Amino acid sequence: MSDRILNIENLKVSFDTYAGEVQAVRGVSFYVDRGETLAIVGESGCGKSVTVQTIMKLIPMPPGRLKEGLIEYCGRNIASFSDKKMESLRGKEMSMIFQDPMTSLNPTMRVGRQILEGLKKHNKVIKNEAEKQIIKILKDVGIPNPDKNMLRYPHMFSGGMRQRVMISIALACNPKILFADEPTTALDVTTQAQILELMNDLKEKLGTSIVLITHDLGIVARMADRVAVMYAGKIVETGSTNDIFYSPKHPYTVGLLKSLPKVDAAKHKPLEIIPGTPSSLIDPPQGCAFAPRCKYSMNICRRAEPPESKIKEGHFSSCWLLDDRAPKVEFIKEGI
Ligand code: SF4
User: Fold this and answer.
1) Burial of 2 by CB count in 10 Å (0-12 exposed, 13-18 middle, 19+ buried)?
2) Is the dihedral of CA 86, 104, 232, 246 positive or negative?
3) Would you say 309 and 302 are in contact if contact means Cβ atoms under 8 Å apart?
4) Which domains are seen in the chain, by residue range?
5) Which atom of ligand 1 is nearest to the CA of 252?
6) Contacts of residue 9, Cβ cutoff 8 Å, sequence gap at least 6
7) How many Å apart are CA 265 and CA 310, to the nearest integer?
8) Cα 300 to ligand 1 centre (Å)
9) What ligand 1 atom has the least distance to the C-alpha of 326?
10) Residue 290, ligand 1, Cβ within 6 A
């Protein structure tokens, strides 16, 4: 059996608004293999969440519009699947954890019933067995006294415990792939570390692939096998976590790394920022969308889109600096 769980090619998604067509995703391609974690990073509004919500068919269409692209899940193109057909995949084969568990859980239902819904729909469990399974699932995600806690409502849990409940719902049917959209943003750092550890443990145990959406590079370093850096609806650089952290080739990736706080930084030295704001996706600029913010920008950058260059196996970047005729820039020497 092939190890490729997900293969996305040239995905383009737009939203029709009164202000015009918002080109949220503009030709994104990536893949995810069995048991690996791919992190998608980038600033808010770069199209990370729209990409995964389109894969899960969670974007209301209209106003959303899937303009083009292949969404291949375990060898099947699911882009044309009906809502009904997608329902049989969601929860069972692919699941999602959202940023804020309080707004994702049903406040009027006991957590045990919320886990049971997925089990009943996809695994056809009988009532006596269901209770045992729910207790086991809650125990696996580290919820104490699961027999009592399964009878409680979401508001009776802390933020971290609610996120554990969300994870237990997402993993109840042993999905092949889990999309985690900023799963720890709403949590304090200690709980954040516990949740990340839990996700890693479950990935090891169940062999689930994870697509992790985040803007936190600390989380990426800790969790990801590979990274895709998104800017203005496109992937501008992709590679192994080591490639991205130690040998970045796109000025935007370098900007993200430079803006990380450093333990050995001089006292009172302000954090570095990427100047400017992301381009409008209603009328994206010709050429490289990062050009207005890029200190290496050349004439060609504003005229033509940079092609994707292969740096080495698995490491790609779209930047005119990688053209043989461009001036040579060594980001590492500039001190990331
Ligand atoms: Fe900067 Fe040009 Fe590279 Fe875009 S293509 S990131 S503007 S150097």
Assistant:
1) exposed
2) negative
3) no
4) 4-224 (3.40.50.300), 231-334 (no CATH)
5) 6
6) 29, 69, 70, 72
7) 33
8) 9
9) 8
10) yes
The letter for the amino acid at 4 is R
- Nearest-angstrom CA–CA distance, 222 and 199: 11
CA distances from 246 to 37, 228, 241 (A): 18, 15, 8
**One-character DSSP codes across 195-209:** HHHHHHHHHHHH--E
Cα gap 178→200, rounded to integer Å: 12
Nearest by Cα to 63 from 30, 22, 102: 22
What 3-state class would DSSP assign to 318? strand
Pairing of strands 226-231, 234-240: antiparallel
Burial tier of 327 (Cβ tally within 10 Å: 0-12, 13-18, 19+) = exposed
Which two three-digit tokens encode residue 197?
Answer: 């550890």
Confirm or reject: Cβ of 296 under 6 Å from ligand 1. yes
Instruction: Return the number of other C-beta atoms located less than 10 Å from residue 14's C-beta.
Output: 22
Render each residue's pLDDT in the chain as its tens digit; 336 residues. Answer: 568 899 999 999 999 999 899 999 999 999 999 889 999 999 888 899 999 999 998 888 888 899 999 999 988 899 888 888 888 888 778 888 887 777 788 899 898 888 888 777 766 666 678 888 888 888 888 888 988 988 899 899 888 888 888 888 887 777 889 999 887 776 677 777 877 887 888 788 888 899 999 888 888 988 899 999 999 999 999 999 999 999 999 999 999 988 877 777 777 777 788 888 888 889 888 899 999 999 999 999 999 999 999 999 999 999 999 998 888 888 764 555
Asked if residues 64 and 15 have their Cβ atoms less than 8 Å apart, the reply is yes
Distance (Å) from CA 118 to ligand 1 centroid: 46
